[in-house]
Amino acid sequence: AVQLVESGGGSVQAGGSLKLSCVPSIPILTSCRMAWYRQSPGKERELVSNIKRDGTTNYLDSVKGRFTISRDIREKVLYLEMNGLKTEDTAKYYCAAESCWPPGYNSWGQGTQVTVSS
Which of 2, 11, 23, 28 is the most exposed, fewest CB within 10 Å of its CB? Predict the structure, then answer.
């Protein structure tokens, strides 16, 4: 499994911004996909965004236009820029890495809390 270290969470007011970072223990392109998930108490963990080796991205509908996933391959950092935060975005955010084959997110970070207040 890949070791993933997350940072950047915190408390902000609605409309504010945060930028999360994830540092994997291996080169980013070793993973076929890397992703950000989130989970709130009493809710299922959901995929927020992911990025493939070729740079193709995917976003949860509710965050499209507000969140941006990106990576710095050389510096080995995955980011999630979060703008126009809403109270519904409050959750613990997790970084994940997927093996190329067999596919599957088999590596997870410890999570970083994001709290958005009105």
Answer: 11
